[in-house]
Structure formats: C-alpha cells, structure tokens
TrEMBL record:
Pathway where it operates: Amino-acid biosynthesis; ergothioneine biosynthesis
Enzyme class, first EC level, given as a word: oxidoreductase
Matches recorded under HAMAP family: EgtB (MF_02035)
Protein name: Hercynine oxygenase
Cofactor dependency: Fe(2+)
Gene that encodes the chain: egtB
Organism encoding this protein: Sphaerisporangium aureirubrum
Keyword check for Oxidoreductase: yes
EC annotation from Swiss-Prot or TrEMBL: 1.14.99.50
Source lineage: Bacteria, Bacillati, Actinomycetota, Actinomycetes, Streptosporangiales
C-alpha cells in the first residue's frame, strides 16, 4: 500500500520482499538431490520453483514494469509454467541449485534498484502504488506454499520447521446464521487484489447456516467409520468414479492402525489429532461428507459473506475481524506452525456472523466453479486466472497455515481440480434454512 510517504512505502515493500525470499531460501536449504528430484508428478522439482520465482520477478518487475532487457533469455521458456506442465519439468536442463540461487539473487539486486528508482505515483498499471511488487511478493509466497506441499510429499523428516499451535476451546457441532440480504462480493479498491477478485459486485443471498468451524478430524472420522467411503449415495457421480478408481478410503497421508488413525506429517507418523480441521481431502471427499452430514458445501459467495460482510455497518471487511493486518491471535497463517490449529483456537478472529477460522488453518473447498466475476478483465496476463475459467476447477477460500498473511484476504480466490489432495485443504459445511426456520 502506498502511503503519503513514498520512502516508507518502499522500505515496507523491500522488507516484505526480503522476508518472502528468506522463506524460499529456507525451504530449499536441503541437499541437491532433494531439490532436483521430482517427489510427485503433481509437483515441480523444488529447484524449478526456486528459479521460477526469480524468473517471474525478472519478467514482471525488471522487464514489464521497468523496461529492462532479458538477463538470460535462453532460460525463460524453461520457467514458463505454461510452456512445460509440472510432469515435464524434471526433464528440462534446469539451472543447478547454486546457479538458481545466484540467478535469483542477481535479479533481486536489480529489483531493489528498480524499486528505488520507480515513481509509485506513476499511473502505469504495474507501477501505480507498487502493484508489481505486490504481484511478485504474493507469487513468491504462493510458491512457498507449493514447496511445502512438495516437502510434505517427499516423506523425508526434518525438512520443515514445526511449531505448536494455540489450543482450541471448540464446542461440538455448531452453526451460525447468515441473514438474508445483499452483500458486496469481490473488490475494486484493494490495492494488491488479483484480477479474479475484481470488480466488486452486489450479490443477494437468502439466509443460510454455515459451520462455525472447519470440519474436524473427529467429525471426519465419523464419516469414515460409518462407511461413508463405501456408500455411493453420498458421492457425486464423478466423485464416486474417482474414489473407486483410486480406492480412496481416508484423507491423503492417513493410515489406520487397528482402531486408531495416524497421519504422516512432514515425514513423521503421529496420531490424528481429533480437534484439528481435517486437511488433505479432495473436493470430492468434502462434497460427499457434506451430503452425508445432511448439508452441502457453501458457495463461494456464501463463504465470503460469512467471512467478511458486516451486516450492521453494511460493508465488507478485509478480514473477518476487521481491516487490521492478521496477527497471531487472529489466525494461523504464515507457517508459524506446520499444521492447522484446533477448532476454537482463534475466538478473536471471528467474523461478524460468528464464523471462526475462516482465514488460515486450511484452505476451504467451496461448491463453486472457478469463473469470472461480472466485468472481469484479465490483468496483467491471461494465464494468471483467465485460462482456468470454465475448465473444471473448484474455488478454495481463506488460506491455510502455510499461506502468508500478505497473500490472503476475504476476497482472495484460490482454485484447484476437484481430485487434488496434496494442498492444505479442508472445508466447512453450509445448509439452507428449513421451512419455517428463521
Ligand atoms: C492460485 C495457487 C492456483 O499455484 O497454480 C503460481 C498460483 N500462479 N504461479 C498456482 C500461481 C502462478 C496458482 N494458484
Ligand atoms: Fe508461478
């Protein structure tokens, strides 16, 4: 955000860029073999992500916003996510880990020079308010979260720093009412919002109930134990095909030992903690659980209204608790811990309607397809959002424990294919009011 004092704004941007880079470097402080290997066909080798964030920064800050020539035109295609799908990336002649670190450090030096020189009041859409720096910063943090998913898939213990989440005081099953009426979805004014969050528009919704907390491991285990994975009544046709084809019987990384469930988390087995939000479930599993529970997934409009619409003030907040930047008492974000916090751990992060943990802990699957808002305009490039519209992606909201605070807000939209489980995703349920219920 550009304040009255441009130097202070630039210092803040530089500090945020530095913190983002520190994170990428920490996650890649592992042996070269771990960096160059492909841990799953769903993911890039870590060394690809590392050079890609630098290449993206070079493309957008140095070339597009500052008018520089390409530093290394011969490597551009390798780090273009659209030229090479993830599965192909290990076959590319990628920069070796040390070379990648040198390349991105060289880009960063030039980026800081460009920041120094840039007039942030220039109306150019990439330069105005330092938009392009917010773009690359959020991009780097999104890849940091992707790197964590890759590290989780790698099975190697000791690669990821842990931390202890606050404890929760959650009651059992609990839903909050979101009253009927229009609200403002999306944003036109948020300075760092992506194209897919724009423009702000009015959406009128009937009243609905939404879970106060994300669905916990305890609740999800009941679905499993009651035979939920074996009963096609609960599954969409595609979901049933997916679960049978892959013989899925529990969330990814879960294993049963007699009557107890365990999970592998960053290379170590541990008992599944009952009060934590379930994570590593696909959209298909979330959808089936909701049907089993006599509920459904919220639409993304419902999710956003429950997250941040202040009915009394008739205005959209940036976060459930207001407009203040997320602090440690609001939400579990930014990898302070390497896991979701138990339900009820963030009463101070409650939204105006009383929903908790909407931001942080786990990305939440919604019932909506990823599609453009009315009046959408692709910016700054079609491949960020536009080419994913109408292609079978489901919307996720709210960010996870791995998401950096700079890269999530009530309007932020994430998306993935309904079969994906390696991301840090869970869900909560919603339901319509019963006849006569007010
Ligand atoms: C918004 C998380 C779906 O990781 O594919 C990274 C973010 N875009 N580089 C992704 C992104 C370009 C994107 N998601
Ligand atoms: Fe990227």
């Amino acid at each position: 955000r550009i304040a009255a004092d441009p130097d202070a704004a630039k210092e803040r941007i530089a500090a945020e860029l530095d913190a983002g880079r520190g994170r990428s470097l920490r996650y890649t402080e592992v042996d070269d073999e771990t960096l160059v290997r492909q841990h799953s066909p769903l993911m890039s080798p870590l060394v690809w992500d590392l050079a890609h964030v630098g290449n993206y920064e070079e493309l957008w800050v140095l070339r597009q916003a500052d008018g520089a020539e390409a530093l290394r035109p011969e490597i551009d295609a390798m780090y273009d996510a659209f030229a090479h799908p993830r599965a192909e990336r290990p076959e590319l002649p990628l920069l070796a880990p040390d070379e990648a670190r040198r390349y991105i450090a060289g880009v960063r030096d030039r980026v800081l020079d460009a920041l120094d020189r840039m007039d942030l009041s220039d109306p150019h859409p990439l330069r105005a308010g330092g938009y392009v720096f917010g773009l690359v910063l959020q991009h780097e943090h999104q890849h940091a979260e992707t790197m964590l998913a890759t590290l989780q898939l790698s099975r190697r213990p000791g690669l990821v720093p842990d931390g202890v989440p606050p404890s929760g005081r959650a009651r059992g099953h609990d839903q909050v009412l979101v009253p009927a009426g229009p609200f403002q979805a999306g944003t036109s004014g948020d300075p760092w919002a992506y194209d897919n969050e724009r423009p702000a528009h009015r959406v009128d919704l009937p009243a609905f109930w939404i879970d106060r907390f994300p669905v916990t491991n305890a609740a999800y285990t009941e679905f499993i134990e009651s035979g939920g994975y074996g009963d096609p009544r609960w599954w969409s046709p595609d979901g049933w095909r997916w679960r049978c084809g892959r013989r899925v019987t529990a969330p990814l990384f879960w294993a049963r030992d007699g009557r107890r469930w365990w999970r592998r988390r960053f290379g170590r087995m541990e008992p599944v903690p009952p009060r934590e939000p379930v994570q590593h479930v696909s959209w298909y599993e979330a959808d089936a659980y909701a049907r089993w529970a006599g509920a459904r997934l919220p639409t993304e409009a419902e999710w956003e209204k429950a997250c941040a619409w202040d009915t009394r003030a008739q205005r959209a907040l940036r976060y459930p608790w207001g407009d203040a930047a997320p602090g440690p008492r609001h939400a579990n974000l930014g990898h302070r811990t390497a896991r979701p916090a138990p339900a009820g751990a963030f009463p101070e992060g409650a939204s105006p309607c009383g929903a908790e943990q909407m931001i942080g802990d786990v990305w939440e699957w919604t019932g909506s397809w990823f599609a453009p808002y009315p009046g959408f305009r692709g910016f700054p490039y079609r491949e960020y959002s536009e080419i994913f519209f109408g292609r079978g992606y489901r919307v996720l909201r709210g960010g996870s424990w791995a998401t950096h605070p700079s890269s999530v807000r009530a309007t932020f939209r994430n998306w993935d294919l309904p079969a994906r489980r390696q991301i840090f995703a869970g869900f909560r349920c919603a339901r319509d009011l019963a006849p006569g219920e007010t």
